[in-house]
Design brief:
Blueprint (H helix, E strand, L loop, with lengths): L3 E4 L2 E4 L2 E2 H8 L3 E5 H14 L6 E6 L6 H9 L3 E4 L2 H9 L7 E3 L6 H10 L3 E4 L2 H13 L4 E8 L21 E2 L3 H9 L4 E7 L9 H20 L6 E3 L17 H12 L5 E4 L3 H4 L3 E11 L6 E4 L8 H5 L5 E3 L6 E7 L8 E9 L6 E4 L21 E5 L2 E6 L4 H6 L5 H4 L6
Parallel strand pairs: 4-20, 5-6, 5-13, 6-7, 7-8, 8-9, 9-10, 9-11, 11-12, 12-13, 15-17
Antiparallel strand pairs: 1-2, 2-3, 4-14, 14-15, 14-19, 16-19, 17-18, 20-21
C-alpha cells in the first residue's frame, strides 16, 4: 500500500497534489511519501515478529537521500553501507555507528580505516584477503574489528541476471565449500573478531524458495563452524525481498518472508540481521514527469517525456517495468511507446503499453521509483541531476536540489595548454 492516489481527479502524494509540486519545483522530480516509507519500515519489522533477536540495517544504496535515512533512523533502523560515502550519510542522518554494517566487495584500505575509526558495528568481509587487510589496519589502530564472512551459497535467486548475486560465478562472497577454513584462519588473526556469516543472493526476489534454500545452507555452515570451536553469534541474511511493480501483482510480502525466516532460524540461537532496501523504499516514491510532445510512430505513437534514462535507468539497464499514470487522467486510454529525450534507443520506458491518454504539457508519473531511482541518476546528455521532494501530509520539502548543468560545467576546467587559439597539430 502507498499514498499516491487520485483525489478529485488529480494524483496526490498524501495530501499534496502532484501538480503543485511540478509547478513549484519543475520536472522531472522524484516525490517520496513520508507515511509510505514509515509504513513500509513498520510492516517489514512487524513481519519479523517471529524472529526474537534481530538487527535491521536499511540498504542505503536503494535510497541514500539524507531525509529518507533520517526517517529510518527515527524508526530505529541501522544501515547497510557499501562505501565511505554511504557511511558518512548514515552517520549524518543520526544512525549510530554501532548499527552500521559495512558491506561491499571492494572496500579500500582507506575505507576500512575510516570505518574502524568511526566504530562501525560489523564489516561483512567478501574475501580472506580483505579480512587479512582489515586485521592489520585494526591492529595498527589498536582496535578490534568486528566482522562476518559473506558466503556465496551458489543458489540461483531467480531474478534478473544483473541483480543476481548468489551464484558461484558471481563476484560476491567466498565459496561455500571454502568458507569454514577461511573463517577459521580469519578468526585466528589479531585485531579481528569473527562473529558471523552473511549471505545475499540477489534483489527483487519474488519467490521465497531460493532464499529459504540459501538460508538452510547457511545454517548448516554455521553449525559446522561452531562445532569447530568458533563463535558464530550473528547471521546476516541480506536483503532482496521483491516488491510489486505492476498494478495487481501479488508477491510474498514481509509477513511471508518473516515467517519463513522464523521457521528456518528457529534453533539458530543467533542475532539475525537483515538488509532490506527496495521493500522499504520502492513503492514510497514516484518519478514525476511532463510530456514534452507526442509524435507518431510506425506502430504506436511515441510519448516523449522530460524524464529520461539518466533520471531512472532501471528500464534501460534491467528491462524493468514501471507503471505509468497521468496525473489528471481523462479516462481515455492509448497504446503508446514512452521514451525520454536522450539520444539513444535504450532511453525507452515502455513499448506498446496501454496507458492513460496524455498530450503535450500533461503531467504523469512512473511508479515504484523510490528504490534505485534517484540514486542511480546521472547527467548524461548534460542534463540536470534530478531533484527529490518528500511529502508529509499536507507539507512537502525539497530534500535534494536539482543540480543544474551550469553547476556541473563550473566544476570543469580547460587546462592552460589548451587555451591558446590554435592547436599544436
Ligand atoms: N544487501 C546487499 C549486500 C546488497 O547487495 C543489496 C542490493 C541489498 C542488501 C539490498 O537489496 P534489496 O533489498 O534492495 O533488494 N540497482 C538494482 C538493484 C541492485 C541491488 C544491489 N544490492 C535495481 O535497480 O534493481
Amino acid at each position: 500500500m502507498d499514498h499516491f492516489e487520485l483525489r478529485n481527479g488529480v494524483l496526490h502524494a498524501e495530501d499534496v497534489g502532484l501538480t503543485a509540486i511540478a509547478a513549484a519545483v519543475g520536472t522531472p522530480v522524484y516525490v517520496y511519501s513520508r507515511a509510505t516509507l514509515e509504513r513500509h519500515a513498520r510492516v517489514f519489522a512487524a513481519g519479523l515478529a517471529g524472529v526474537p533477536d534481530k538487527h535491521i540495517a536499511f540498504a542505503v544504496k536503494s535510497n541514500p537521500n539524507l531525509a529518507v535515512l533520517r526517517l529510518l533512523a527515527r524508526e530505529g533502523y541501522g544501515a547497510d553501507v557499501v562505501s565511505e560515502g554511504e557511511m558518512r550519510r548514515a552517520l549524518a542522518a543520526g544512525i549510530p555507528a554501532a548499527d552500521i554494517v559495512f558491506s561491499g566487495v571492494g572496500k579500500t584500505k582507506a575505507e576500512l580505516a575510516s570505518a574502524l575509526e568511526e566504530g562501525i558495528g560489523q564489516f561483512n568481509l567478501e574475501s580472506e584477503e580483505e579480512g587479512v587487510e582489515l586485521a592489520v589496519i585494526a591492529a595498527a589502530q589498536d582496535r578490534q574489528a568486528v566482522a562476518a564472512l559473506r558466503v556465496n551459497p551458489d543458489v540461483d535467486a531467480g531474478t534478473h541476471s544483473k541483480i543476481s548475486t548468489g551464484k558461484a560465478d558471481n563476484k560476491f562472497g567466498v565459496a561455500y565449500d571454502q568458507a569454514g577454513a577461511i573463517y577459521a584462519r580469519l578468526a585466528a588473526l589479531d585485531g579481528l573478531t569473527m562473529r558471523g556469516l552473511a549471505v545475499h543472493i540477489g534483489s527483487q526476489i519474488t519467490n521465497l524458495d531460493p532464499s529459504r534454500a540459501a538460508f538452510i545452507k547457511m545454517g548448516a555452515l554455521m553449525r559446522s563452524i561452531r562445532s569447530a570451536g568458533h563463535l558464530v553469534s550473528h547471521m546476516d541474511l541480506g536483503g532482496g525481498l521483491g516488491v510489486p511493480y505492476r498494478e495487481g501483482e501479488e508477491l510474498p510480502g514481509p509477513a511471508e518472508y518473516g515467517a519463513m525466516v522464523a521457521e528456518v532460524t528457529a534453533d539458530w540461537q543467533a542475532t539475525i540481521m537483515f538488509e532490506p532496501g527496495r521493500v522499504i523504499t520502492g513503492n514510497a516514491g514516484v518519478l514525476l514527469t511532463e510530456v514534452i510532445r507526442v509524435k507518431p510512430g510506425a506502430n504506436h505513437p511515441f510519448v516523449v517525456v522530460d524524464a529520461a534514462m539518466n533520471d531512472l535507468v532501471r528500464p534501460a539497464m534491467y528491462d524493468a517495468w514501471h507503471d505509468f499514470a497521468a496525473v489528471r487522467p481523462t479516462g481515455e486510454r492509448i497504446t503508446a511507446n514512452i521514451v525520454g529525450p536522450i539520444c539513444e534507443s535504450s532511453d525507452t520506458f515502455a513499448m506498446a503499453r496501454d496507458i492513460d491518454a496524455v498530450q503535450a504539457g500533461d503531467l504523469a508519473i512512473f511508479r515504484t521509483a523510490g528504490a534505485y531511482g534517484a540514486t542511480m541518476a546521472n547527467t548524461y546528455n548534460s542534463r540536470a541531476l534530478v531533484p527529490e521532494v518528500m511529502v508529509d501530509g499536507a507539507k512537502w520539502a525539497v530534500v535534494a536540489e536539482r543540480i543544474e548543468p551550469a553547476t556541473i560545467l563550473a566544476a570543469e576546467h580547460v587546462p592552460d595548454w589548451l587555451e591558446s587559439s590554435t592547436g599544436s597539430a
